[in-house]
Specification:
This protein is mostly helical. Helix content is 79%, strand content 0%. The chain is built from 9 helices and no strands.
């Protein structure tokens, strides 16, 4: 077994195309995870006990079952029910739905960290509930959430190879298709690992910098 630069040069453009898909799936899935996570966090704090318990157990079910099983359900089971999703859409929904149960806890902790006096101050100013959330609560609660949310973004990026199971041609699957076609595994898989490192390591340091920056402010 030896390294073949010709193979590496041949597969590299395919890997870069797969990396683009990986990054797209990560960011779209993260946007969905953040939006759903905020909604779940608000519902978990509802005064209606039935709503709180329903959202809690639904979140626990999603969190305690494997992401791979959820992806298979979205892509292979839903068509039996008459709902057809493209591989990319199914993958993004799977990532977003799965990680929303984690980001919801980040949002909930951040919101609950806002002093109760801020709610009372908003009420004394006759703010509507929407104004209270957008002008008082969220501006104070979101900054400390940024580091853990960034960490979940990195985690989601590293979980994208699971999308290969539903035929999304992301970074790993691009390498896998080439390897299975030409029986060359050393160069493609090594480059996949290197590309994941090149993206993950700077991102991890950026998340650490954000955390340190917020810590200094407090």
């Amino acid at each position: 077994m030896h390294w073949d630069w010709a193979v590496a040069a041949e597969v590299f453009p395919r890997l870069m195309a797969g990396l683009v898909v990986t990054v797209q799936a990560t960011f779209v899935g993260a946007a969905l995870a953040y939006a759903l996570g905020l909604v779940l966090a608000i519902l978990k704090m509802s005064e209606n006990r039935a709503v709180r318990w329903t959202v809690y157990w639904l979140s626990e079910f999603i969190r305690r079952t494997p992401l791979l099983v959820q992806l298979y359900f979205l892509f292979y089971v839903l068509p039996d029910l008459g709902l057809f999703l493209s591989p990319f859409v199914a993958g993004v929904i799977g990532l977003g739905l799965h990680f929303s149960t984690y980001t919801s806890e980040v949002f909930r902790a951040g919101i609950e960290n806002v002093p109760k006096g801020q709610w009372e101050a908003a009420k004394s100013l006759n703010y509507t509930m929407a104004q209270t959330w957008t002008r008082v609560i969220l501006p104070q609660s979101i900054p400390p959430m940024i580091p853990p949310l960034a960490n979940y973004l990195i985690t989601m990026f590293k979980e994208t190879p699971l999308l290969a199971a539903i035929t999304v041609v992301e970074l790993f699957n691009a390498a896998n298709i080439y390897s299975n076609s030409y029986y060359k595994y050393l160069e493609p898989m090594t480059l996949v690992g290197a590309l994941f490192l090149l993206v993950s390591i700077p991102s991890a340091y950026a998340a650490m910098w954000l955390e340190q920056k917020y810590s200094r402010r407090n």
